[in-house]
Amino acid sequence: MKKIIVFIAVCILGTSALATDCELESFSVNWTAFKTPTKIGVSGTFEKPNLESRKSKDDCFLSTLPTSTVHIDTSSVKTDNEQRDATIVKAFFKTMVEGEYIDAIIKRIDMERKELSVEITMNDTTQTIFMPFRSEGKVFSAKGKIDILNFSASESLNALNEACFDKHKGKTWSEVEISFVMVMKTICR
Fold it and tell me: What is the pTM of this model?
């Protein structure tokens, strides 16, 4: 159990006083949104999300994890289609209040349930979601779901649906699956 706690702490903190020989190899924030009445998934990511953590005076895992923050520049959205990327930014994110950024703060970790409590701010609205997590070898990942309507973003969702009406066959779903993955260069002990 102690190894798992140290590993997660290093994943969240990147290079820290806990384990200076462990380095973060990669960090990604991923999403899958849905279109058409048959709910076809469209997946993407945000390039170079900014992961920050505030150091506590003891650098303890339990005291630093709940302050880890991810700052996402929404213009860095990437799918396998540049035209789609531009439409998502223009029709969806730019129609939001302060839509240039999404912020997420890890508020709490429940080791027993293997679940993170994450506070997400988007469209000037903050919601808390729960993300089950996994730790396997050098990889730490967490997955969850948000509903765009819970962020007071019905106008942005409608704007995206209108911009993509034919391709979405008139239906853009409000549910979005989100995840993040951290990969360490080595297994931290």
Answer: 0.82
